[in-house]
């Protein structure tokens, strides 16, 4: 990436840090104390985020931090407050909105090709959640108290925000299918936005999409004058006409991780606001995740305002 150098890397297993940098550490405290850094990229699990963001903030370092932000609402709030108290810039790394087909779809919608937006749907599928040893690439998924909404559908919540604006209310149903895991592995959400738009997202990991390509999603966006569909191959269709084709052969899901991090670096250089700035992400995306879990428990629609206002009955 232009103008970026990986100065050091830290991992609980030194050999993994050595792959990334010639200056490897197993102690984040030691790395932050000894190295001259401009920012920190936190890619560890959510239960470590508060401590690591706090340490970086104490040293005045900008941070990009992976989603999920934190294991619960209270911890996520403390994480944002730790950065704000030191005047540190903090971006949440949620790369789904940076998948190129969603960036292109937003332009199609903004151009008016489907008219005023009315509704949308995301169908998310991948096949690694069944059997005695599910999720072999990320086996820690099996032990998470909150799983498919927190780890996967949060991407679609944030992308819906990116495409259609703020979310007002969430209603969710969730269940556990595979008894070898702790959290929910099948969920469906319906969302109402502040704008007159409603949508749904449905996810599980027991079958694969038929035309799976760089995406694990299929989606449809409908307006008063037509609709567009995005296939799992990363193609955008307007009715029966293909109007956009992805040509990304490298990188994660259309090279979306690179583009997310490029946005972070460019905003540090220019001073522009992050698209997923931590306070806004907390109160608009993470709050919608919390609303989904509160809805599962209460069996009713939950407003985002209830979460942000501290009235949720989900910890």
What does it look like?
With 315 residues, the chain is α/β, with parallel strands linked by helices. 34% of the residues lie in helices and 23% in strands. The protein contains nine helices and 14 strands. It has helices spanning 14-20, 28-34, 49-58, 73-85, 100-111, 148-164, 256-270, 278-298, 304-308; strands at 9-10, 24-25, 39-42, 62-66, 90-93, 117-125, 167-175, 186-193, 198-204, 217-223, 226-230, 235-238, 241-245, 302-303. It has a nine-stranded mixed β-sheet with strand order 13-12-11-10-6-9-8-7-14. It has a three-stranded parallel β-sheet with strand order 3-4-5, sandwiched between helices. A two-stranded parallel ribbon has the order 1-2. Strand 12 and strand 13 (241-245) form a beta hairpin. Helix 3 (49-58) packs parallel to helix 4, helix 4 (73-85) packs antiparallel against helix 8 (278-298) and helix 6 packs across helix 8 (278-298). The longest helix has 21 residues, at 278-298. The radius of gyration is 20 Å and the shape is globular. The chain starts with 8 loop residues before the first strand and ends in a 7-residue tail after the last helix. The model has no long low-confidence stretch (mean pLDDT 95).
What does the secondary structure layout of this molecule look like, with pairings?
Elements: E1 9-10, H1 14-20, E2 24-25, H2 28-34, E3 39-42, H3 49-58, E4 62-66, H4 73-85, E5 90-93, H5 100-111, E6 117-125, H6 148-164, E7 167-175, E8 186-193, E9 198-204, E10 217-223, E11 226-230, E12 235-238, E13 241-245, H7 256-270, H8 278-298, E14 302-303, H9 304-308
Parallel strand pairs: 1-2, 3-4, 4-5, 6-9
Antiparallel strand pairs: 6-10, 7-8, 7-14, 8-9, 10-11, 11-12, 12-13
Helix pairs in contact: 3-4, 4-8, 6-8
């Amino acid at each position: 990436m232009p103008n970026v150098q990986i100065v050091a890397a830290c991992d609980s297993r030194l050999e993994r840090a050595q792959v990334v940098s010639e200056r490897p550490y197993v102690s984040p405290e030691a790395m932050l104390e000894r190295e001259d850094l401009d920012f920190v990229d936190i890619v560890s699990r959510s239960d470590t985020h508060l401590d690591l963001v706090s340490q970086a903030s104490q040293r005045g370092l900008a941070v990009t931090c992976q989603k999920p932000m934190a294991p619960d609402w209270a911890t996520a709030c403390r994480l944002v407050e730790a950065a704000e108290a030191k005047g540190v810039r903090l971006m949440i790394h949620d790369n789904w909105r940076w998948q190129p087909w969603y960036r292109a779809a937003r332009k199609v919608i903004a151009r008016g090709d489907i008219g005023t937006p009315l509704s949308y749907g995301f169908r998310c599928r991948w096949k690694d959640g069944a059997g005695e040893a599910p999720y072999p690439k990320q086996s820690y998924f099996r032990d998470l108290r909150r799983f498919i909404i927190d780890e996967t559908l949060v991407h679609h919540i944030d992308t819906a925000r990116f495409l259609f604006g703020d979310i007002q209310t969430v209603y969710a149903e969730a269940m556990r299918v595979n008894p070898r895991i702790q959290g929910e592995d099948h969920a469906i959400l319906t969302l109402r936005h502040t704008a007159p738009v409603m949508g749904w997202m449905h996810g599980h990991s027991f079958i694969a999409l038929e035309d799976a390509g760089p995406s694990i999603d299929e989606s449809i966006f409908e307006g008063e004058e037509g609709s567009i569909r995005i296939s799992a191959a990363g193609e955008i269709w307007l009715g029966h006409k293909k109007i956009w084709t992805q040509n990304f052969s490298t990188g994660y899901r259309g090279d979306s991780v690179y583009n997310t991090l490029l946005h972070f670096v460019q905003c540090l250089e220019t001073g522009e606001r992050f698209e997923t700035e931590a306070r806004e992400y907390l109160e608009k995306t993470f709050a919608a995740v919390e609303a989904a879990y509160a809805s599962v428990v209460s069996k009713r629609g939950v407003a985002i305002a209830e979460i942000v206002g501290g009235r949720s009955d989900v910890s």
